[in-house]
Automatic annotation (TrEMBL):
This is Cytochrome b5 heme-binding domain-containing protein. SMART domains: Cyt-b5. InterPro entries: Cyt_B5-like_heme/steroid-bd, Cyt_B5-like_heme/steroid_sf, MAPR/NEUFC/NENF-like. The lineage of its organism: Eukaryota, Fungi, Fungi incertae sedis, Mucoromycota, Mucoromycotina. PANTHER family: BINDING PROTEIN, PUTATIVE (AFU_ORTHOLOGUE AFUA_4G06240)-RELATED (PTHR10281:SF115), MEMBRANE-ASSOCIATED PROGESTERONE RECEPTOR COMPONENT-RELATED (PTHR10281).
Length: 110
């Protein structure tokens, strides 16, 4: 399954929040290390009420590195991850890159 070339379209933090699966007319996005992945084709994992919906509509880099499903860990700042956790984060990014299209880059709201 091949993916399209990564897009660099800027997507603000507040814009990204709309793509959390709650609006069925919008795609579902998960951001990792600032790259925004379209995970819409996998609603069983990322749709509302599913196991990984906690990651949607935001950059959840820290949580992915820590293998955590806690909402408070679903933040973009992963500066306090250990070396092992950083490896895990890299593995998640590689996993997503093989399966999902990158549709943009997260940018601050202002």
């Amino acid at each position: 399954m091949s993916t399209q070339p990564p897009q660099t379209t800027p997507i603000t933090v507040s814009e990204l929040a709309k793509y959390n699966g709650s609006d069925p007319s919008l795609p579902i996005y998960v951001a990792i290390k600032g790259d925004v992945f379209d995970v819409s084709k996998n609603t069983s994992s990322y749709g509302p009420g599913s196991g990984y919906s906690v990651f949607t509509g935001k950059d959840s880099s820290k949580a992915l590195g820590k293998s955590s499903l806690k909402p408070e860990d679903c933040i973009a700042d992963y500066s306090d991850l250990t070396e092992k956790e950083l490896e895990t984060l890299e593995q998640w990014h590689a996993f997503f890159s093989k399966r999902y299209n990158i549709v943009g880059k997260v940018v601050p709201d202002n």
